[in-house]
Design goal:
The chain has 331 residues and is an alpha+beta fold. 15% of the residues lie in helices and 34% in strands.
Length: 331
């Protein structure tokens, strides 16, 4: 999620939808507010590790929300944020087979954040991502799947628009799926670590949701009736910047890890196994700071992603839905 990070059958964008309670039929666990929720009646809360810098309250939902926006975006509604990500994707099959690299991934999100009168924020975002050849580093249009004996697959790049969300100091886990759904209201409290001049935060989300690709129709593309996805994000920033409330945006860098089903375009269907992603994330000052190949490919294929959204659009569309819109089931 939670920052524009990225895309495949399920992405950060979907996590933001979940935080707003907008996705029916999903189950979710998250590190947000986890300590406070678990301690509950005992009156305990999740405590940060290390000496907390003066001027920042890690147990304030509003300050955590604003810190998250400053880490990943900007509190300035006129500012455009570019969030780059880049890394590698691996196959994980069984408990004994060695994990193997399949291809690289690189892309970015771009957007703005608008403060609301009630203390919430509207996050306007769109994002693209490309799969790259391990040997050459070039963006792939096709890929020979070694897990299918070298069968040629037509690569489907990430292109999600919109990726919007309303971010709040408190939110409810509950999606209208059933009467016994999990509906606890939790506070936006990130787990923090403070060591010397460093301030570090994380956000973990573990999801289970009904697949938009019906396996009866999408026999080679769908992972099955349900999809399990986990995303883990981390950020590091100078503690001195964190406590300086005059800074609407922080110079943060971090990582994004993901455990997810096979991508639809890989044509793996319900073959046992899954993918593991590891990547770096970095906030850039402008789109011109993107790597040349990413900038040029985006200008050619998806030019609108070089500018931030200016208007709120709904609903969001998942990567699975985008794939179903643009492709037809393989025989």
């Amino acid at each position: 999620m939670i920052n524009a990070l990225m895309q495949s059958p399920f992405d950060r964008r979907e996590m933001l939808k979940l935080m707003a309670g907008a996705l029916p039929g999903a189950a979710l666990t998250t590190s947000i507010g986890a300590g406070a929720a678990a301690a509950g009646a005992a009156g305990l809360v999740s405590m940060p590790t290390g000496p907390v810098p003066a001027g920042f309250d890690p147990l304030s939902p509003q300050q955590n929300l604003e810190a998250y926006i400053r880490l990943t975006r900007s509190l300035d509604p006129a500012a455009t944020t570019v969030g780059w990500f880049g890394g590698r994707i691996f196959s994980v099959i069984g408990d004994k087979e060695i994990i193997k690299p399949l291809f690289d991934i690189e892309g970015f999100g771009i957007g703005r954040t608008e403060p609301q009168a009630d203390g919430s924020y509207k996050a306007l975002w769109r994002e693209v991502g490309y799969y790259k050849d391990l040997a050459t580093g070039k963006i792939m249009e096709t890929w020979q799947n070694p897990l299918l004996g070298g069968e040629t697959c037509e690569v489907y790049p990430i292109n999600n628009d919109p990726v919007n969300a309303v971010l709040k100091p408190e939110f409810t886990l509950g999606f209208g799926a059933s009467k016994d759904q999990y509906t606890e209201t939790i506070k936006f409290l990130l787990p923090w670590n403070f060591i010397g001049p460093h301030a570090m935060a994380a956000f973990d989300v573990n999801l289970d949701w009904k697949s938009p690709l019906d396996p009866k129709d999408w026999k080679r593309e769908s992972p099955g009736e349900r999809v399990r996805v986990s995303e883990y994000q981390q950020w590091r920033v100078d503690a001195a910047q964190l406590v300086d409330r005059s800074l609407p945006s922080l110079n943060a860098y971090g990582s994004w890890n993901r455990v997810a089903t096979w991508l639809p375009w890989m044509l793996m269907g319900q073959t046992p196994g899954h993918l593991f992603y590891r990547s770096h994330t970095l906030k850039l000052g402008r789109v011109e700071d993107l790597p040349k190949d990413i900038l040029e490919y985006t200008a050619k294929r998806f030019p609108k992603y070089l500018t931030a959204p200016t208007e709120w659009v709904s609903p969001n569309v998942s990567s699975f839905e985008m794939y179903a819109r643009d492709r037809k089931p393989k025989a």
